[in-house]
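Summary for the funding panel

The consortium committed to producing paired sequence-structure records for every protein in the target list. Below we show the first two records in order, beginning with the earlier of the two.
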Amino acid sequence: MSAITVGKKEFRDAVRSRKLALLTAVFALFTLGGAYLASWAGDLFAEVDGEGAQSTTELVLALQSPAGFLVPIIALVFSYAAIARERERGSVKFLLGQPHSRREVVAGKILGRSAVVAVSILVGFGVGFVGLVVFVGSVSIVDYLLFTLVTMLFGAVYVCIGVGISAMTRSTTTAAVGVVGLIVLFWIVWGSLAQGLLFWREGSMMVDPMPEWFVSFVSIPPDSAYSSALSVVLGEGGFAMADVYQTERVPLLAEPWFGFVLLALWALVPVAIGLWRFDRADLS
């Protein structure tokens, strides 16, 4: 129960934050913009080939980009200082002086801040849903709810990553550098490294079919795992890396269902390392 108590306090403190309102508003505007672009693209294709009908999967593809970009930012902004700020201010000793163990504090931080990110996603996707109904006119509520739930899971994974990094560090500055470095790794370095290795091994970046190791490598980051998980719950292709890059045989890491395994690992490993460091930290 101590973890839940900490989580409730974290949620109450964060939900009153102007920062949450601002980031949620930005997210809502992006999803609304994605809904408009989805309807605009449908009208354009209708003019070109006479096929204007869009499935909810196609609409979700239009909203996945803002979600994949903004949800990690929102989650990391609300989690990177979760423990580091307490250590920096010395208030962590007061917190641990109450009947909370270090593990319960970490778990409570994750619960509370995941709930905050979930609220932001619900508001943003609520606006996006209204936009889709207004601009497009027909949306599968079940598919949209599944999309929302997987995105909330995705946000919780990034909260775990942020809290894990926060638990490893002594200051918010170090934690901020860590999460920025992680974003750069996932969004820039990982893909560039994959393309560089492909050119080095194959002599070209235009290979058909793509080698299995390449598809496996680009399927590992949490953003790719999120896409794979969406492919499973929506029962449609077009999301997972195995659909983007054609291979002779889909490797295990690129299997859509394995996206859930990768998301679980991205959530658990940083938390485990962070808790290990936090348990051994001298807080005096």
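The next record, for a separate protein in the list, is shown here:
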Amino acid sequence: MSKKKTVWFEVKEGESIEECLSRLAAEGYIVAGRKEEPLFEEVNGEYIPVRQLIQFKGVLADQ
């Protein structure tokens, strides 16, 4: 079964960016983009930033 040409890899909670990039490379992809968005939680009617969601766009490396 063939792999998808493009996959988004999310940096998991407790995982470093370097660990995510290593996981991406181990699956045979190279980085083609990055996106970030804040994750908020509502507390007492106010939105408090909890953490930053970071994703890397992986493109299948030529083999």
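Regarding this second record: The helical segments are 17-26. The beta strands are 6-10, 29-43, 46-60.
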